[in-house]
Specification:
The chain is 64% helix and 9% strand. It has 611 residues and is an alpha/beta fold. Among the domains are: 326 residues, ABC transporter transmembrane region fold (Up-down Bundle), CATH 1.20.1560.10; 77 residues, 3-Layer(aba) Sandwich (Rossmann fold), CATH 3.40.50.300. Strands 6-7-8-3-9-10 form a six-stranded mixed sheet, with helices on both faces. Strands 2-1-4-5 form a four-stranded antiparallel sheet, with no helix packed on it. The longest helix has 54 residues. This is ABC transporter ATP-binding protein. It comes from candidate division Kazan bacterium RIFCSPLOWO2_01_FULL_48_13. It is a multi-pass membrane protein. InterPro entries: AAA+_ATPase, ABC1_TM_dom, ABC1_TM_sf, ABC_transporter-like_ATP-bd, ABC_transporter-like_CS, P-loop_NTPase, Type_1_exporter.
């Protein structure tokens, strides 16, 4: 009773998937030619399969009454009864052999086309998601993105194939079978007039129920995938705090929800399944009963009754298949709609329609009256404002250090420069060009970044260094490693530059990962250098080596250094002190030390701690 009450409270979705289907047909346009070939083969196979009931009829009537229909008698000219039997068997064998060959050819094309469809959509999905801003990925967990992308893509080919391939043969089968039914017996055909509408009504109701539950189940599956990815990605942290049981409990809680939803879904599926089965049972009970009565009293041939029953199956078969396709499409459409929702996400950072590649010759940077907040990129509504009317000019080839306590906007300054986010108001200019008016990819080609959390692929050391310049030679990779004071360490390894770094670089220390990142930045050879806490993971000895490498890298380039450890920035042309999203003071190290300001107090405190 509770399930019934809950069903009445369902907020049925008004969309029947027509928009999504139209879009799928556009997205899979390269596959249409081969799908048309599959369609042609399916139609031929369907038409051939409609001939086999006639063979059944002729064989039964011939074996029981030694009679052939006028159609077969016209073409089978032999008189010997064994010869006639051989002809009938031969025709049946020929039809089945041709049908089997066509089905295998269709199956081969079907399998290959399904793989091609997945490859096309995977590429499109990855391309569209990678075009999203950093803010998008900060809001969406990788596990959820992966689960939603995979589940949506896996459903696409089935739906496209159903629309372009399955529906036409099913409709053709249905029409031919209905015509045959009414030709043979209008009285018996009445059963179809009752069975078909009931079957359709129950199936549509069933599909709506399935779609409702599937949406809830799919959400929980994504959550489960997210927990698994989190647990695997942070397995070291899990082990450090002995929280294995906690992670398993998180998974169990989600699985309990999935099971509860599946139980509710299965109850409705079984209920509608019973109703559909009852329609079949009563329909065939009428056909067998009344058909048998006609055989006993009206002289209806058994072969004719078998033909009628077979074609009734051929009517209900396509109808049932069509309803199953409808069921699958409704369920699959949930995953596809969620995939499209990712594709259509309205990102805050997009290229302007008339954006052109940026041209940087000098590398001068200017922040002009910039306002910015992470929580709302369009309006300020009382949330924490990171920057308010921030203005700062960095001259070409100048080395500027940004210092200050955590959370005052130093890293945000870098993110705005690289256009990971856009200001709410104001402009960020490079060589006088507003970076919102140029393409993001061209902008980032001119910027080399060494961040605090170094990102590496689970590939070789050489691959990760070469990521800064895919066309680099082995000699160039080695030179970059030498400048970054990374070369001696690499060549001490058994596989040298072919050494795998492990997931998230787990086989390298923090300092080694940072030296790898510096080598990668050296190889990129960009006009603007950004270093965000690039020496934070190094001991004093290695820090000096890296600083020497840093100054070789930044020579003749516009450079921004973000650092908490002030010993890193003493050689900068200018030090800018941030506090609460504003510039508190700026100057050289010596100039700021002469003042009794925040920088001098901070430097003195660090000196006392380090002494």
């Amino acid at each position: 009773m509770q399930c019934v009450q809950r069903l009445y409270q369902l907020n049925w979705e008004t969309s029947n998937g027509v928009k999504e289907i139209k879009r799928l047909l556009v997205e899979t346009k390269p596959l249409h030619p081969v799908l048309l070939v599959i369609l042609a083969l399916t139609i031929i196979s369907s038409l051939l399969s409609l001939l086999t009931p006639w063979i059944y009829r002729e064989m039964v009537n011939f074996l029981t009454m030694q009679k052939l229909s006028s159609l077969f008698a016209h073409y089978i000219l032999v008189q010997d009864k064994f010869a006639v039997l051989i002809w009938l068997v031969g025709i049946y064998f020929g039809i089945e052999l041709i049908t089997a060959a066509i089905d295998q050819m269709q199956g081969y094309l079907d399998g290959i086309t399904g793989v091609r469809c997945n490859l096309i959509l995977s590429k499109k999905s990855l391309h569209r998601l990678l075009a999203m801003s950093v803010g998008f990925f900060e809001k969406k967990a990788p596990g959820m993105l992966s689960a939603r992308m995979n589940s949506g893509i896996s459903e696409v080919y089935g739906i496209v194939r159903s629309v372009l391939v399955s529906i036409i043969p099913l409709t053709l089968n249905f029409i031919i079978a209905v015509v045959v039914l009414f030709m043979f017996s209008k009285t018996l055909a009445i059963v179809f007039a009752v069975m078909a509408p009931l079957h359709v009504i129950i199936s549509i109701w069933r599909a709506k129920v399935m779609r409702f539950w599937q949406k809830k189940i799919r959400t929980q599956w994504e959550q489960q995938h997210r927990v698994l990815i989190d647990s695997f990605s942070h397995q070291q942290l899990v082990k450090e705090f002995s929280r294995e049981d906690t992670e398993v409990s998180r998974l169990e809680a989600i699985q309990a929800k999935i099971l509860s939803l599946r139980i509710a879904q299965e109850k409705w599926l079984r209920l509608t399944g019973i109703l559909r089965r009852l329609v079949y049972i009563f329909g065939y009970m009428w056909v067998y009963g009344y058909g048998g009565y006609l055989v006993l009293t009206k002289g209806l041939l058994i072969g004719d009754l078998i033909l009628f029953i077979t074609y009734l199956q051929r009517v209900m078969g396509p109808l049932s298949s069509a309803m199953q396709i409808y069921d699958s499409m409704q369920v699959g459409m949930v995953s596809i709609q969620r995939l499209f929702k990712l594709w259509d996400y309205k990102d805050n950072v997009v290229d302007a329609l008339d954006a052109k590649p940026i041209k940087i010759t000098e590398g001068g940077i200017e922040f002009k009256k910039v306002n910015f907040s992470y929580k709302n990129t369009t309006k300020f509504k009382g949330e924490k404002v990171v920057f308010k009317n921030l203005s700062l000019r960095i001259n070409p080839n100048e080395v500027v250090a940004l210092v200050g306590p955590s959370g005052v906007g130093k890293s945000t300054f870098v993110k705005l420069l690289m256009r990971f986010y856009d200001p709410v108001d104001g402009q960020v200019l490079i060589d006088g060009q507003d970076i919102k008016q140029v393409t993001q990819r061209s902008l980032r080609r001119y910027i080399s970044a060494v961040m605090q959390d170094v990102t590496v692929f689970n590939k070789t050391i050489g691959y990760n260094i070469k990521y800064g310049k895919p066309t680099a030679t082995d000699q160039q990779i080695s030179e970059a490693a030498k400048i970054a004071n990374f070369y001696d360490f690499v060549v001490s390894l058994r596989k040298k530059f072919k050494t795998l770094v492990g997931e998230k670089g787990v086989r390298l220390s923090g300092g080694e990962r940072q030296r790898l990142a510096i080598a990668r930045a050296i190889l990129k050879d960009a006009k603007i250098i950004v270093m965000d806490e690039a020496t934070s993971a190094l001991d004093s000895e290695n820090e000096k080596k890296i600083q020497d490498a840093m100054w070789k890298l930044i020579e003749g380039r516009t450079t921004i250094i973000v650092a908490h450890r002030l010993s890193t920035v003493k050689r900068a042309n200018r030090i800018v002190v941030f506090d609460k999203g504003r510039i508190l003071e700026q100057g050289t190290h010596d100039e700021l030390m002469k003042k009794s300001g925040y920088y001098r107090r901070l430097f003195t405190m660090q000196g006392e701690r380090l002494s």
